[in-house]
Amino acid sequence: MKPDTKLDTLRRLPLFAGASARELRAVSKVVDEIDVPAGYTLTRQGELGHELVFIVDGSAEVSRDGRRINRVRDGDIVGEIAVLTRGERTATVTTTTPTRALVVTARDFWTLLERVPSLRFKVLEKFAAHVAAA
Q1: Comparing C-alpha atoms, which of 66, 118, 114 is closest to residue 92?
Q2: N or C: which end of the chain has fewer CB within 10 A?
């Protein structure tokens, strides 16, 4: 993905709404784009969470203990609870359509927030709202 395209993609994600151009450039340096087929497991319940996944195009089913509990689609975040708590995945997320996503490792995410303090509050505030709504 070209840098300008990646910036445009990040700008469309609700998590980064309101982020400055400088903040978006910093994020773009640590995210990787992936394309996965339908049926691909993005996260598995009980495993340690080592990355965040931002769904760009596509959809996935969220299940806990084998039961479907939610569906995620364009703009949604997957894996934030495990990354924030540095713990285990609380659910399994499996794509239901071919999906394009952006991925950032937990280590790069925390380093980003340390290096770009102006982004820290914005991101953590949105994570808190997202978790509260779940």
Answers
A1: 66
A2: C
Separation between Cα atoms, residue 40 and residue 48, nearest integer Å: 18
Domain that holds residue 98: 3-129
Tens digit of each residue's pLDDT (9 = 90 or more) over 94-115: 999 999 999 999 999 999 999 9
Q: What distance in Å separates the CA atoms of residue 84 and residue 79, rounded to the nearest whole number? A: 9
Q: Look at the chain and report how many structural domains it folds into.
A: 1
CATH code, domain with 64: 2.60.120.10
Q: Which residue positions in the chain have pLDDT lower than 50?
A: none
Query: Residue 125: what pLDDT?
Result: 81
Domain annotation covers residue 134: no
